[in-house]
Write a structure and sequence with these properties.
Number of helices: 12
Largest sheet: 5 strands, antiparallel
Helix content: 40-55%
Strand order of the largest sheet: 3-10-5-8-11
Strand content: 15-25%
């Protein structure tokens, strides 16, 4: 994030009311994407996590201007006046996770911090790691897909995003400052798509123009994991999502994720969650039981 020339706000800010958003009103949390090159100057009577998923923008907030790059997460408090403007001849896409004070207080408490402590932090933005950015994008795409198909998303779908956002601000990870090649980002996006749920490490190696040892090093560099570790944790996360939110038979889920047998799937799943898939489906998810980074 780079500080640019100070700019004054010539326009009066528009206040966005949480009551005008159905998910914020009913669940206390919401998600939406913006592809507009510029937004109006505005503030909210709720909290928001702004994530830039494409492009570079100038972010004006409370009279100051900052240049934000793809992968930046910014924490917006109520009454912060802000707007974004894309760079000339560039398109941008950003994600907004809105959350009411009541819900954010509960999430902060679960993470061992008060909402006041979160708001008082000097650093309210962070450059997300490649894996964190892909997590937000893939989770948001699933929410949009479910809503588009007429399935209601319960609070857990949205809360998972807010928990990850608060955790990113608290950890202030700088791994994302390492410039990730576009080709590597494209590979991550592909293997997170449903058509690649069953992919193997060998399939991933074929997606790049490098030998397996070189691809493994790239994965270690940008995700902190080998290709096999990354795929295994991704498949477990996908399985947890399906087990909680669908009636997909276990054998069908196992095949969809590319496991050679149901017993193999059961064993790997239990290693990561402490439960068999059947027990997990009955008992529901526990964030602390899933070893994710």
């Amino acid at each position: 994030m780079e500080n640019t020339t100070m700019k004054s706000f010539e326009t009066k800010a528009v206040t966005v009311n949480f009551k005008d958003n159905e998910n914020l009103r009913n669940k206390g949390i919401s998600l939406h994407w913006w592809s507009a090159d510029t937004t109006d100057l505005h503030n909210h009577n709720f909290y928001e996590f702004f994530i830039l998923t494409k492009g570079t923008v100038v972010h004006e907030i409370n009279g100051e201007s900052f240049l934000l790059k793809k992968g930046t997460l910014y924490f917006i408090r109520p009454d912060d006046c802000h707007r974004i403007s894309a760079q000339p001849e560039q398109s941008c896409i950003h994600m907004n996770i809105g959350i009411t004070k009541e819900k954010l207080e509960k999430i902060c408490a679960a993470l061992g911090i008060t909402l006041d402590e979160l708001c008082e932090r000097k650093k309210r933005s962070v450059m997300l790691s490649v894996e964190d950015l892909q997590f937000f994008k893939s989770r948001a795409e699933r929410i949009n897909m479910r809503e588009h198909n007429g399935f209601e998303c319960d609070y857990f779908f949205f809360a998972e995003l807010a928990i990850r956002a608060v955790s990113a601000i608290l950890s202030s990870e700088v791994a994302g400052d390492m410039q990730c090649p576009e080709w590597f980002t494209a590979i991550l996006e592909k293997i997170h798509s449903p058509s690649f749920y069953a992919c193997t490490a060998a399939d991933v190696y074929k997606l790049g123009n490098f030998s397996p040892p070189v691809m493994i090093e790239y994965f270690r560099k940008y995700t902190g994991k080998t290709v096999k570790q990354y795929l295994r944790e991704l498949k477990i996360a996908i399985a947890c999502d399906f087990l909680k939110n669908s009636e997909t038979p276990l054998i069908e889920l196992s095949n969809m994720l590319g496991y050679t047998s149901l017993s193999h799937f059961n064993r790997i799943f239990k290693q990561y969650t402490g439960r068999t898939p059947a027990a997990y489906r009955k008992g529901g998810p526990s964030e602390s039981e899933i070893r994710r980074t």
